[in-house]
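Checklist before submission:
- one chain only
- standard amino acids only
- sequence pasted in full

Submission:
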Amino acid sequence: MRSEKEMLELILGVAQRDERIRAALLTGSRVNPAAPKDVYQDYDVVFFVTDMAPYYNNPAWAEVCFGKPLIMQMPEAMRNPEGTGAFVYLMLFPDGNRVDLTVDGRPYVDNGEPAVALLDKDGGKGFLPPLPAHSDHCWHIRPPTPLDYYSCCNEFWWCLNNVAKGIARDELPYAMHMLNSVVRPQLHDMMNWYIGARHGYCLSTGKYGKYFKKFLPPEMYALYAATYSGGRYEDVWSAVDAMCGLFHTLALAVADRFGFTYRREEEDGMRAYLRMVRENRLYLPGLTL
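Returned file contents:
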């Protein structure tokens, strides 16, 4: 596998040799001082160019510059192959390195994400403004407002009724979607607030909570792991039980930390409904679910 030094030399060399590429920026985890370093990190690169035409939907150019990848994805080619905006080449190479290259004809707009200039041929007078010191501040956990907290609790408990209906109707895709794409994000928000209350709000748990294990006590992380299920409905019910128990614990702790009132009646009401569905006690005359 090529080293980081070799990869950055390759990327910088491409930009230096092409006069139309005026600046190159490195973003993502490789410039995030809080991100763990490993061999799986991508090279998130932006080339700023004076003319988009030679670079738009031109995989041959990317292969000449960087080598033939094992697989390439070009998101814009799947949505807008004749467009004129930025164009992205996602490239995974035979040695395991991955380069996510964006080619853009517009000046860089700082959105707070960590970024380091690899090259600026125009000395701050072209595509790149002066960049602040890079940090992961834009991804730090934010303390909840009362509305954040109460909305999270209500959404978590309310949407569990859809999980139960999906199980009762033998609609596994629907039940799993509601559990993992609708209910789980509320659990993640509450976990973030819990972690922030324990460790301070100057940290990030990463995309989709990928660093939860780093910040949670082992016994609590084990409870979190139990919220993932297999495809059998008994496994899904077990995951629901685990999720309910964990959310209850987290929500009480966050309420205590911020002086919020936990609305236990919402939990009690939904738990009663879940029991009715699980025990098949919902029925109409002549129809049993």
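Reviewer check: The mean pLDDT is 92.
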